[in-house]
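Quick log. Single chain, no ligands specified.
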Amino acid sequence: MSHNSLSGRIPSSTQLQSFEPSRYVGNAGLCGPPLTKNCPGEVVRPVASKNENGEEGKDELERWFYIGASIGFGTGFWIACGVLLVNRRGRHAFFPFVDFWKDWVYVKVVVFFRKLQRVEHA
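-> predicted structure:
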């Protein structure tokens, strides 16, 4: 791409924007991303910042999503566990309920696999 006397805006959403700016050396008339030269009448968009690894930084909205999700999970977790720690009747009702369902699922899975083994041997 270099030293071809090209001019104009580099097309957006093409493979040409993925090249390094050094690939366009010798084309004084080219403008637009990835070059630092702006085209006439172009609105300048902020470029995503890069971290120390050279990777583009996460979007601010995505960062706040993860912060909110982690705070929400922690709050919900401790509300549920706090109720079980503080409320004795709730604790004595919850754990037998969980044990009943654990045993029910275990029996259903074992019966299913026994039936499956009988079908395979028949």
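Residues 1-47 form one domain.
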